[in-house]
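Let us begin with a simple case.
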Amino acid sequence: MHDKCHIAFMSNLVQLPTAALKAMAIAGEAVRLARRRRRQTAADLAMRLGVSLPTFRKLEKGDPSVSLGTFVMALWLFDLLENFSGAVNPAQDKTGLALEIARMPKRIRHTKSESELDNF
């Protein structure tokens, strides 16, 4: 596998990092394995997804030119969507959570109007 891949995206050439390419390959292999475990042909699955057989083969190879919608639909067909959803859950964004915590104020002071509201 190449270290980097270039794909056309909205008239621009986008270079994908190696880690992203590896993740796509792993995801494609997961779809392929799920299909084979269920003894379904690639042609049958392509038809169910509404894509051509060559496009489905690209999906199984982890080709980044296949739409995310097609990939997610394949996961849904195999009842694997929950695994994907867990991976993109905002609670799993460790960097984002760390930044959010870093931006929190050190102290919280009540304004006079907030203090008056607390007396009720």
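The second case is a distinct protein. As before, the sequence precedes its structure tokens.
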Amino acid sequence: MSTSVGPPTVEHPQPRGISSRLFVLALLLLVGGAIVRSAIATRLDGFTIDEAYHIAAGVSYVRYADFRINPEHPPLVKLWVGALLSATGFHLSPIRMFADKSDERDFTEKDVYLNNDFHSVQRRARIAMWALNGVLSFPSCAHGDTSTRL
């Protein structure tokens, strides 16, 4: 008859973390506050030097599946904004051949500033960007298991 004698088992209490629900609520408040702050802080700002360029490029990507305008920049954000603007009414001239980058920029700026209400274009583009930032902020909430503790 052999019995093994070993050190006694010691149970350590599990540290209590915040619940997943509390984490999600805090995250929603933080991201929502950041979006509201951004909306207030930038409400009087104009377009940056290349915003109109990216917006028109995004609309052309969505409408025509034509990636000739501004292909040197990654398309994700341009596609996101272009999808919203295409769906909400953005006039885009038919795509033509461009002599150079300056001609391409002139084409896009004419469409954004002259063929559309640029204030409305800017407002809708910013709403799209705030929505994208909100969507990208919540991947940790997508796992669906609210019983786990951090």
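The chain has five helices and no strands. The two ends are 46 Å apart (CA to CA).
Keep these points in mind for the review questions at the end of the chapter.
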